[in-house]
Automatic annotation (TrEMBL):
GO molecular-function terms, A-Z: L-alanine:2-oxoglutarate aminotransferase activity; pyridoxal phosphate binding
Keyword Transferase: yes
Highest rank taxon of the organism: Bacteria
UniProt KW Transmembrane helix keyword: no
EC number assigned by the record: 2.6.1.2
Class of enzymatic activity (EC top level): transferase
Protein name, per record: alanine transaminase
Cofactor(s) required, per the database record: pyridoxal 5'-phosphate
Family membership noted in the UniProt record: Belongs to the class-I pyridoxal-phosphate-dependent aminotransferase family.
Record key words, sorted: Aminotransferase, Pyridoxal phosphate, Transferase
One matching Pfam family: Aminotran_1_2
Aminotransferase class I/classII large domain mapped to chain residues: 50-407
Amino acid sequence: MRRKIVHVGAGQLTYEIRQIVGVARQIEGFGRDIKWENIGDPVEKGVAIEPWMKEIITELTSDDLSYRYADSQGVPETRQFLADLANSRKGAGVNADDIIFFNGLGDAVAKIFGFLKREARIIGPSPAYSTHSSAEAAHSGYEHLTYTLDPNNNWLPDLEDLRNKVKYNDSIAGILLINPDNPTGIVYSRELLQEIVDIAARHDLFIIADETYCNVVFPGVEFTYINEVIGKVPAISMKSVSKEYPWPGARCGWIEVYNRDRDEEFDTYILSLINAKRLEVCSTTLPQLSIPPIMGDARYPEHIAKQSAELASRAAEAFSYMKDVDGVSVIMPQGALYFTVLFEEGVLNENQHLKIAEDDIREYIEKITSGMPLDKRFVYYLLGAEGICVVPLTGFCSELKGFRFTLLEIDAEKRSQIYRAIAARVKEFLGSD
């Protein structure tokens, strides 16, 4: 073309969680049954929606008003409900105008990073959730800036690393945190969150807190919302119905904006997000209408508690299979939907492989794994040998080698077979050199 039309950050738009699906489909075409452990879709894995939730949603679909446009920022009554919910916690408050709905949090992430000045960078955790890291990198045109989550300290942030990077890189305008974390499942303590807030306050930054899994916290683990410790620091909290109801296909996420009035630049930035939503007219109406009657229902806390207990039990089961495997280390998650396995340094090499009986699958895997990251090599061999689709840790903007799988399989026998097969194949792979 006579003009270059590709955005400078286009090459940064990678999402390993979905990209591996293409390889899995190829292997599926060879006749291998695929066990999808790559993405956190509870419904796809057989989780049944509570009948009482379905009744509420069915009743809403009978109301003609559920088919209308919503206000650009979202349904006013729902925004007020969520503001009241946030204000029920001690900490920074919001009003309905501080709640902005999006077509899922993927849409929110794209706009939050896309409407920043290109030179303004957001530093986030590594390993990183790919949607955030790719969007931030694409917006800037450079690799995503990260601080370290330390596997030798229960995957908690290395605060000294964060302090130094913020101190010596004045392009950093904000700090991203994911709590509970994806992919590690770690939940941040109140004290740790307060230290991150203090760093932001000291350097005049804002905070983005992805709290997607705030209601997927395992029994006995205390969760602290960002608005409980944020003080006067400007902040954005991100939430959705995807993992809670669960209703990922609703594409219904929202942000809660705190201390918008304390910084003129931040306030103008938030206004740009609202104006962007106005150009789209509205986001999904029906799911928004469902939030007050479902989240306000007396049965909702019991639903959340039951869901979290089931996931905690599955995490313990996965841990029991992986904890004694030589060459890897595992840390029990405290929330979210995932389990992360870390290969110990130096145990992987380019000669390792898994036995694959089918010639066509083996030849395909041997061809595509040449020169790729070593943990990704294991992931593809696991896919070829067992049909188990997991995600390499290097796909989460990390130099660490490992992989992540979900805790969503509801069939106990099938789940046990998957976890047992993963453990066995790790042992085979590491011993194949």
